[in-house]
Each structure stands twice: as structure tokens, then as C-alpha cells.
TrEMBL record:
Keywords: FAD, Flavoprotein, Monooxygenase, Oxidoreductase. Residues 3-334 form the FAD-binding domain. The keyword Oxidoreductase applies. The keyword Flavoprotein applies. The lineage of its organism: Bacteria, Bacillati, Actinomycetota, Actinomycetes, Pseudonocardiales. Pfam families: FAD_binding_3 (PF01494), Rng_hyd_C (PF21274). It comes from Amycolatopsis ultiminotia. It comes from the Bacteria. This is FAD-dependent monooxygenase. GO terms for molecular function: monooxygenase activity. Its cofactor is FAD.
């Protein structure tokens, strides 16, 4: 074996996974076909649950210290969405993907994990003991497990012949990073009588402190994906929607995006796992793709580490598909709903316009704001925890109580499990898992709960079930 886990792809998914494995002390190699990190502008938003996950690993403060990342205004299909009522501690922020990737790569390097670049995976085979990966330059790497974090056009997925059902793109839109004169609101969605529409969000500021915005243009007559976007096309698109009200001052970057929507039927293929865009692709609406990929990695990382260390049986790895596939499905569905509400092809279909009007009214309701805010931010994710009972905390991200001078999230920095034991009744039992699980006995006012390394509650409530939960998630005691 060259390493325990080979991660193909050093995007946000691959690097988040590499960080989880380095925290657990499990040897991993990250490879990427690009000779240097991509500076292309893609994701602009990081959602509450991802911010919480970064905070749990002690990475949020250092990330936010690398730039000015304002809190974003929420929206659903461009309809402004107040996030005030969503269940979040850390509201959605405009952190560009470029900044996220730069930060993760530097953080990994500081911990001795260096992305091996210029390695283009071209071949893959697996047997009972491991996976053999071959690369265009003749390099061969053998690992016990391989994770495909190689994006929407995943070579690994193709080499596996993995089913990737869904729909091919039927229409394209233009996504661009721009400076504009005349744009004032943080979120704008405007359409013209002939079906052209534009969405504009504040992304942040450029080095001179001037507002940078993400512009999405759509409507009738979309061009094929591979046709380059021109500055004239953007000016024409703006004119079609806004007349002379808005003016393009600077175009920094543009690409065509499609409404293709696909999800891998299986996230696990023996010793190979699909994660991030390699497992699910959809229109980038509501800032979810990068976030979902990073959450896939956080779900998979500690499980791979536990199995590689021989602490838990291999079957723990099946819970990755069981937990993350339904999350991807929910993301795809809400993106499809948003894509319809956008009237993406500019049909001006009265049914679509009426539905959008109804949604605009519904999104004024606090309960709806909370529901949709939780959905987009990842806060609504609840993992199925078999045999864990019905306590309302089970399967949810653990609340972050203050435990004396520290917080639960600080305890999760080392990616170990945490047992909150306010009455001090589980000391003897927990001692048997003390190499994997930290027990906090001094936490008056909190509920007893067992928290997995990814921050999700896997036991609460019934004391008699605790030993079974410790066994299931952390393996046999030492
Ligand atoms: C315009 C736009 C706006 C977006 N906005 C948002 C947003 O606001 N919020 C959000 O959460 N998401 C957003 N997304 C989606 C987000 O960009 C993706 O979901 C994210 O990049 C997925 O990360 P990943 O690490 O899974 O894959 P990628 O970022 O695609 O990384 C895959 C990596 O694998 C490497 N690779 C590919 N093939 C091979 C190979 N054969 N061998 C070795 N390496 C290989 C690639 O070079 C690449 O570095 C947006 C996307 C676009 C296009």
C-alpha cells in the first residue's frame, strides 16, 4: 500500500476529507490533475451547517481572518428570503470557493499534507485488499480505499461504470462575476415581458473595496454550453432586462451553467466512494453544491478513519450512502423547484408566474422562512439512526452548549466522539471507549447525549441504549 486512503480531486470535497483524515492521524494522499489550484470563480456562498462544521474543527476563525466575507442575504429562486428565523448560529456567508480552496490547501500543507498535482487518474481496479489507481504519466498508487472527489465529470465514476441517473441539461444560463453601476439591493431578481431574467447577488468586494456581484442571466434562446460567453452578450442581457438602469463596469469571469440534475445511484462501490459533485450535480441555485460536498466529506472521513484503524467493522461505511444519498436527493429536488420558479427558459407561462407569485407571498411567513432557510442551510438534515429511539435530538446536529469554560464544538476539534453525561452516571461504561470518546461529566443543564465526530447526535434519552450506540458507532470497547 502507498497509503490508506487515496483522494482523487483537490476541490473543496477532497481537501475537506483530507483534513478529516489528517485529524484522525490516518495516512491519505490527495491527487489532482491540475498542475495548480484553479482560480475559476464558482461557489460564492457557505451555508450555516458548513460554517458550524468548520467551527467544530477550529477552522472558522482562521478562514474568516483571510478576507472580508460578508453575511449573505438569503433567497430562494431569487425571491428574497429572511434567514432570521432559520435555526442557525452562524448565518450564510459569501466565502468564494477560490478562498475556501486556498485556505484548505494551506491548512493541509501546514499539517504536512501536500496535494500531489499533475496526476490525472486514468485507470482503476479493486480487489479484496485494496484499490489500484493508474495515472496518465504512468504513476501507480495503491491504497486500501479510494474516494472520488473528482467533480461532476468524475473519471472514477465513469471507470466504475456507476449508474448516474437523472436528467441531461435542457437549457443553459450565464453565470458571471461582475461590477455593475446601478445595482443596489443585496438580492435582485428581475424579468422582462419577453421572458429574459437576471438574478444579482452581492458576492463581496474586490481588493479596492468595490462591490462584486454574481449575475445570472437566463431566458429564451439559450446557447450551447461550450459557446464562450462574451462581454457583449452580458451587456445585451442586462439591457434586455433592465434597459439602461444597470451598466456593466467590469466582467471578471463568466461561464455557462446548465440545469442537468443527476445523482449516483450508489455512493459506495466496494472500496471506492463517490463524494461531492462526483456523486451529485445540479444547477448552482441557493449555494448548495460545495456545501453538500464538504458535508459528504465530513460524514465519510471519521468512518473511514475508524475502519482503517480497525476500531469498527467495515459495515460502518455503508452508513455513508444511507445518510448522504437522501441529503443529495433533497438538494436536487429543491434546486429543481427553484429552477422551475425562475421560469428558466423565459416562457412567461402563466402557471409558472402564478406559482412564483404564491411562493413570494409564502416566503413572507416566518414558518416558511424557517423551513426553507433550514433546507438550504443544511440545518434540516436529520440522519436516520437505526435503533436509536425517538428522542427529538437523535440524528440532528448537536446543539452547542457551553460546558464550563468550553463549548461542545471545541471538543469536536480532535474529531473524536463526545458523551455529555451531566449526572455523571456513565463514567464506568464510557471508560471502556475512552480511547475514542471523550466523556464530559461536568455539564449541568445539558441533556445527556452521545455525539459522533461529525457533530451529529447518535444517542440521547434511554440509558439502556447507550452501550449499543457506543458499539455501533465506535466499535467494540478496548
Ligand atoms: C457558477 C457557479 C456557482 C456556484 N455557486 C455555489 C455556491 O454558492 N455554493 C455552493 O455550495 N456551491 C456552488 N457551486 C457548486 C460548486 O462549485 C461545486 O459543487 C463544487 O466545486 C464541488 O466541489 P468538489 O470538490 O466536489 O468538485 P470540484 O470542485 O469540481 O473538484 C474536483 C477536482 O478533481 C480534479 N479532477 C478531475 N478529474 C480528475 C482526474 N481524472 N484525476 C485527478 N484529478 C481530477 C479537478 O481538477 C478538480 O480540482 C457553484 C458552481 C458554479 C459553476
Amino acid at each position: 500500500m502507498n497509503t490508506e486512503v487515496l483522494i482523487v480531486g483537490a476541490g473543496p470535497t477532497g481537501m475537506t476529507l483530507a483534513n478529516e483524515l489528517q485529524l484522525a492521524g490516518v495516512p491519505a494522499v490527495v491527487v489532482d490533475k491540475l498542475p495548480k489550484r484553479s482560480e475559476l470563480s464558482k461557489a460564492g456562498g457557505v451555508q450555516s451547517r458548513t460554517l458550524e462544521a468548520l467551527d467544530q474543527r477550529g477552522l472558522l476563525e482562521p478562514l474568516l481572518a483571510t478576507g472580508d466575507y460578508p453575511i449573505s442575504a438569503g433567497h430562494f429562486a431569487g425571491i428574497p428570503l429572511s434567514l432570521e428565523h432559520a435555526r442557525h448560529r452562524l448565518p450564510w456567508r459569501s466565502v468564494p470557493q477560490v478562498a475556501m480552496e486556498r485556505f484548505l490547501e494551506q491548512h493541509l500543507a501546514a499539517h504536512g499534507v501536500h496535494v500531489r498535482r499533475g496526476l490525472d487518474l486514468t485507470g482503476l481496479s479493486q480487489d479484496d485488499d485494496g484499490v489500484t489507481a493508474t495515472f496518465a504519466d504512468g504513476t501507480v498508487l495503491r491504497s486500501r480505499y479510494l474516494v472520488a472527489a473528482d467533480g461532476g465529470h468524475s473519471t472514477v465514476r465513469t471507470l466504475l461504470g456507476a449508474a448516474f441517473p437523472g436528467r441531461a441539461g435542457t437549457v443553459t444560463m450565464v453565470a458571471a462575476d461582475v461590477r455593475l453601476r446601478g445595482a443596489d439591493a443585496p438580492v435582485m431578481h428581475t424579468s422582462s415581458k419577453d421572458g429574459h431574467w437576471a438574478q444579482i447577488f452581492l458576492l463581496g468586494t474586490d481588493p479596492e473595496g468595490r462591490p462584486l456581484r454574481r449575475l445570472v442571466l437566463g431566458g429564451p434562446g439559450s446557447l450551447p454550453r461550450d459557446v464562450p460567453v462574451t462581454e457583449d452578450e452580458i451587456r445585451d442581457g442586462l439591457r434586455a432586462v433592465f434597459g439602461t438602469r444597470l451598466e456593466l463596469l467590469e466582467l471578471r469571469y463568466a461561464r455557462r451553467i446548465t440545469n442537468a440534475a443527476r445523482q449516483a445511484a450508489q455512493y459506495r462501490h466496494g472500496r471506492v466512494f463517490l463524494a461531492g459533485d462526483a456523486a451529485h450535480v445540479h444547477l448552482p441555485l441557493g449555494a448548495q453544491g460545495m456545501n453538500t460536498g464538504m458535508q459528504d466529506a465530513i460524514n465519510l472521513g471519521w468512518k473511514l478513519a475508524a475502519v482503517v484503524r480497525g476500531q469498527t467493522p467495515e459495515s460502518l461505511l455503508d452508513s455513508y450512502h444511507a445518510e448522504r444519498h437522501p441529503v443529495g436527493e433533497i438538494v436536487l429536488r429543491n434546486v429543481q423547484a427553484q429552477s422551475l420558479l425562475l421560469d428558466r427558459e423565459g416562457t412567461r407561462d402563466p402557471d409558472v408566474l402564478a406559482t412564483r407569485e404564491l411562493f413570494t407571498a409564502l416566503l413572507q411567513q416566518q414558518d416558511v422562512q424557517r423551513y426553507v432557510g433550514d433546507l438550504l442551510s443544511g440545518m434540516a438534515v436529520r440522519y436516520p439512526i437505526p435503533g436509536a429511539g425517538t428522542h427529538p435530538l437523535i440524528g440532528l446536529p448537536a446543539p452547542d452548549p457551553k460546558l464550563g469554560s468550553t463549548r461542545l464544538h471545541e471538543l469536536l476539534r480532535s474529531a473524536r466522539g463526545v458523551l455529555l453525561d451531566p449526572a455523571g452516571e456513565f463514567g464506568e461504561l464510557a471508560e471502556r471507549w475512552s480511547d475514542r470518546v471523550d466523556r464530559i461529566g461536568q455539564c449541568p443543564g445539558t441533556e445527556p447525549m452521545l455525539v459522533r465526530p461529525d457533530g451529529y447526535v447518535c444517542w440521547a434519552g434511554e440509558p439502556a441504549d447507550l452501550a449499543a450506540a457506543l458499539r455501533r458507532w465506535f466499535g467494540e470497547p478496548h
